[in-house]
Write a sequence for this structure.
């Protein structure tokens, strides 16, 4: 009998912050006064966190600085256009350094290091969602503990929704944002919050309870540290002694000599 063809890949509905949280306000900010107003209203707790910057179109060009900082909590999605504001807003600095705000994202170590390199911004209580997924759902995720898992994959796995990517990621984030850029940026950071809210409760059912340092860190002066209520002092790396990476991958066959 001929083999059955594999089933077609599943098609998911697109992730929409407006569908997920219809009561949420979206605020696109291009001045420091509005940043201060919104930061005063922005409540502590988990928040999706992401950055955008203008891509380099020429090879070997120095990477452009962060142009947009995105934060999303239960009530508000904030798109803060750093390029338009010129100086990094002190009220935003305060929130990023305050451990009462749990910054959640994918590739968040790189983002935080970039913020330091570009603007000398320190960030505390940063949750790497890939490490959190590997901690709470180890049966599903095997392989190296520090291996990234994309946000789109996490959304498909835990929300059965698809994140739009494509050309817009390579667009100019320094110019006034188009409606498509606004929606893309809002969905990116809001989905980080959604994934955190899905995964974090799983930590409370685990025995022993996982340490926050298994999936979160502080970044101070460009270095990652174990999260602490005091000044950072112990260097951090992705590590979870309870994680099962599964069997090692099959060795690659040796290349044939020509």
């Amino acid at each position: 009998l001929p083999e059955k063809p594999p089933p077609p890949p599943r098609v998911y509905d697109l992730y929409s912050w407006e569908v997920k949280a219809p009561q949420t306000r979206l605020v696109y900010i291009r001045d420091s006064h509005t940043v201060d107003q919104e930061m005063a209203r922005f409540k502590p707790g988990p928040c999706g966190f992401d950055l955008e910057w203008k891509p380099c179109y020429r090879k070997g060009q120095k990477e452009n600085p962060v142009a947009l900082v995105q934060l999303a909590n239960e009530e508000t999605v904030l798109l803060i256009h750093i390029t338009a504001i010129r100086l990094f807003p002190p009220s935003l600095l305060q929130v990023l350094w305050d451990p009462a705000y749990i910054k959640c994202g994918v590739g968040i170590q790189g983002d935080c290091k970039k913020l330091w390199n570009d603007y000398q911004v320190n960030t505390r209580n940063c949750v790497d969602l890939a490490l959190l997924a590997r901690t709470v759902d180890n049966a599903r995720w095997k392989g190296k503990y520090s291996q990234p898992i994309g946000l789109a994959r996490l959304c498909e796995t835990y929300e059965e929704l698809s994140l739009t990517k494509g050309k817009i990621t390579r667009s100019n984030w320094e110019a006034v944002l188009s409606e498509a850029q606004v929606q893309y940026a809002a969905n990116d950071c809001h989905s980080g919050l959604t994934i955190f809210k899905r995964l974090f409760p799983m930590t409370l059912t685990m025995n022993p309870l996982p340490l926050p340092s298994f999936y979160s860190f502080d970044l101070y002066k460009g270095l990652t540290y174990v999260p602490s209520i005091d000044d950072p002092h112990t260097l951090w790396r992705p590590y979870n002694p309870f994680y099962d990476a599964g069997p090692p991958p099959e060795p690659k066959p040796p290349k044939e000599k020509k």
